[in-house]
């Protein structure tokens, strides 16, 4: 007598719970001591905490040391061309509201070759989380001047020291209209976790600049913001709207000119949320238009719609 | 040289002069070429558009040709419409009928009027040389009568519609159908606009043109079986072809003559639940389109030459990462800003070879307005099946040309493509060496637990970066062999004319009409001529060498420069492909489409 055998189920290696182990992919190609390791650890930690469906996480990047990020995260991801990760990510975000879109990159990718896209991604308020690991130098190509290199910094392309005024990332983002803007430091793990997590919760274009040291080509660049190296990590105190006298001097994250003032403080400046405002995302606005268009045509099928158009052309 | 095909083919000799002009029976014609010459703000395009759409509704063949200045407003402009009761292949070399609104319109375009042709001119503005006896002169005070008909405030706006009324009377056009078209056209605007238009039309139609013109004409009725016709321009056909192909997402940046495709898609796609985004620049546009495609929705980006140059790096990524993408290039004259409103086929090399590295991609070229629709369907099919970038090389002649064609059978053609988010098995690899890549879009569960990265770095089968010589060789071959496989699946090209013989004209793109008309006329006058029109330019279909061998001469006719070595772009590629010294080249670079007689003369001259 034959017993009906159940079809053996293929072993499924995907764990129920999203763990750091499940999220770990290739070993990073970064130099030992690179600040980007801390950002990667922070990202694992947040994803572990948030327990997003693994298949809905997307990590995208352009070109640079930090832009290797997607290879090190076990999620869907794409390693794109230099400077264009924001429009790529905008496409993914706009077409697939079910996904959680993360973009990683450096200062060259974001502020130099991709500077225009940063402006327009922010202006359009596309829904995504963008973490910029700013090390003030081009690392992958071995020490050329970056758009954030301070004046006087000696590189292979500025052997007598950089002469061009560096980009002020916070001011650039404020003027472009990014709706969430924060700044943090790779050595301040808890602060960094909090900033990236808040960016992730934000509906709209959310950017976190992480000062992430390049130990190879610009060691000590951010010591002045690191208490363990004798610096000071000054955190922005945000308004609590509790009516107390102390609250008057706290930062209002919806106040644009106050954000500019913070951005103008001398290096290493302050860390925390510069700006957090509500403005409809492009995703929302486009979806509204789609829904209005669908309703206007009474949710006609694709065939009906095109047939109607062709009938008008007869 | 006069047009070889007498453009007003008389097929019914009716009495041409009687005492009473009102009793004139219209002369039956099969074909008429009407050139409207004025300034771009006069609305001559709309007269042409109405005539083209009327022909489409009357089951006639129609083709238009338009030049527009690249200035914002004003400047001389022409619209030529050829209506035929038989097959219309080109917009015609010489006009039978020239409508001149201004002195400069007359001076610049009288050369395009055939001997015996009719010059209809605005006698308020034009003083023709009446001593030139080659033409028939019909002067009508168009400006004055329009102002009179519409009242003072309209000035001479509406004279285009007045002329439409005149033409309706001269050609015995179907007035009810024309009025219906005008109502449709203006209905969305102000009701008074419809009335004004109808008034201007009526004034033109009622004008006693019989006092100055002996003949009236009427197009022969041709019983056409088959589907009703739709009338549109090449850019519209391409846009609706993409919609039929299930393409729901796209991104671009405005540029002439591409922009009208993005305008249509921007308005239309939301109705289908899709989206078209105008980006900050060309780089963002191609990148966003790749984002759409990567997310599982095959996307389209497009531009004209300068914009395609900017997109090139990202298109290389699409080749390397094996992401499907449709790139439309509505070619114009180049290089650099070049001739923004003229036609040229000089971006073939760019489409096939543009960019660094070995980056194979598919290149298709539509031959007619109708083909713009079908090529979009084919491009989408190939892009999806082979996970590859696909170029569609249109050009400014096709973009603005209006043609009527049999309505496509949408029911059997429409595709609704949804991203495949099904879970992928444990052995899923994004870049398998033994298969054509089919990506797992984000949102797809990976049962093996390992999620894929798509990448522009050379990679192994799992998408890991690699510098391995063996893998670079194998992956380069993988990206190439899929297109070789596609070549084997392409339909064998069809020869028009003699199956073997003296000369074969090879063409591609918008020159289909003039080339085929040249072959038709040449054969009618006893020449052994054939034509072969390529829609698939990269990869080429198989079997071309066997066809070429059947002819003494193979002449590739294209609108680009002969280059340093004396051969146009397609000619160079065909010579490199087949090593066949019999392949000759005929090129031109005046920014205008081929005239039928140019092709005939050149082909008969080249030995």
Keywords:
heterodimer, A: 314 residues, alpha/beta, Rossmann fold, 2 domains, 8-stranded mixed sheet, two-stranded antiparallel sheet, 10 helices, 10 strands, B: 607 residues, Pyruvate-ferredoxin Oxidoreductase, domain 3, 4 domains, 7-stranded mixed sheet, 6-stranded mixed sheet, 24 strands, 35% helix, globular
Describe this structure in words.
The complex is a heterodimer of chains A (314) and B (607). Chain A has 314 residues and is α/β, with parallel strands linked by helices. Chain A is built from 10 helices and 10 strands. Chain A has helices at 20-23, 36-50, 85-95, 107-112, 115-124, 169-176, 189-201, 256-263, 282-296, 302-312; strands at residues 57-61, 76-79, 100-106, 128-134, 137-138, 144-145, 180-185, 205-211, 234-235, 270-276. In chain A, strand 5 and strand 6 form a beta hairpin. The model of chain A is unreliable at 1-11 (pLDDT under 50). Chain B has 4 domains: 10-219, Pyruvate-ferredoxin Oxidoreductase, domain 3; 230-413, Thiamin diphosphate (ThDP)-binding fold, Pyr/PP domains (Rossmann fold, 3-Layer(aba) Sandwich), CATH 3.40.50.970; 421-487, no CATH class; 495-605, Rossmann fold (3-Layer(aba) Sandwich), CATH 3.40.50.920. Chain B has 19 helices and 24 strands. In chain B, strands 12-11-13-14-16-15-22 form a 7-stranded mixed β-sheet, with helices on both faces. In chain B, helix 1 packs parallel to helix 4, helix 5 (175-187) runs antiparallel to helix 6 and helix 7 (234-244) packs parallel to helix 12 (369-386). Chain B is globular, with a radius of gyration of 26 Å. Classes of the chains: A alpha/beta (314), B alpha/beta (607). At the A-B interface, strand 2, helix 3, helix 5, helix 9 and helix 10 of A face helix 1, strand 10, helix 7, helix 9 and helix 10 of B.
